[in-house]
Amino acid sequence: SDDSIEQRVSTVGRVGPHLEVKIVDPATGLTLPRGEAGELCTRGYSVMLGYWENPEKTSEAIDAARWMHTGDIGVMDTDGYVAITGRIKDMVIRGGENIYPREIEEFLFTHPDILDAQVIGVPDEKYGEELMVWIRMREGALELDADSVRAFCTGKLAHYKIPKYVHVVDEFPMTVTGKIRKIEMREQSLDLIGQG
């Protein structure tokens, strides 16, 4: 393959034959230029036509032009390589800005004391949503507080991407199959910020 190592490990590859892909703005449905993050949509003979005997779910996923809306946030580069960067349902809208938690989580992984980080949106009267990060610390590291996390982010992330709330935990709530339960984190977070 002519794909570089970087392209092979950081993307899902290029669009295959007999398949169309576009990246759209989740709010407007308009096709976005290459390099911009939005919802990954696909259509072609190998793409499902709908959910078996479930027209409601089908109409949520497949539009009139037969584009399947995957719910994935993706970016297509100028060479046609697609990277999946998150899920629409995890996107946070703060003051009109679409924020993709994975970008912030990946930045926080560069902190030497952070083992894992999960960013979620919590309700906010002024901005609609605010960012909250749940953090697991590395063994032996001193616990971080909101001020130290904000200081680490300042100048490296856009101001609206800096988490307002920080919650340090030993473990994240998990499903029996080992997936992080962000729904449970959001519910617990309401109590933590005094809105529960």
Structure in words:
This protein is an alpha+beta fold. The protein folds into two domains: 5-87, Luciferase, domain 3 (Roll); 91-195, GMP Synthetase, Chain A, domain 3, CATH 3.30.300.30. 20% of the residues lie in helices and 30% in strands. It contains five helices and nine strands. The protein has helices at residues 5-10, 55-61, 101-108, 146-153, 182-192; strands spanning 19-24, 38-44, 68-76, 82-87, 92-94, 97-99, 114-124, 128-137, 165-168. The strands form three sheets. A four-stranded antiparallel sheet has the order 1-2-3-4. A three-stranded mixed sheet has the order 7-8-9, sandwiched between helices. A hairpin with a 5-residue loop joins strand 3 and strand 4 (82-87). The longest helix has 11 residues, at 182-192. Keywords: Ligase. Residues 6-52 form the AMP-dependent synthetase/ligase domain. Residues 103-179 form the AMP-binding enzyme C-terminal domain. It holds the Pfam family AMP-binding.
Number of helices: 5
In percent terms, what proportion of residues is strand? 25-35%
Helix content: 10-25%
Low-confidence stretches: none
The CATH superfamily of the largest domain bears the name: ANL, C-terminal domain
Which structural category fits the helices and strands? alpha+beta
- How would you characterize the largest beta sheet? 4 strands, antiparallel
Pfam families: AMP-binding, AMP-binding_C
GO molecular function: medium-chain fatty acid-CoA ligase activity
InterPro entries: AMP-bd_C, AMP-bd_C_sf, AMP-dep_synth/lig_dom, ANL_N_sf
Organism: Rhodococcus maanshanensis
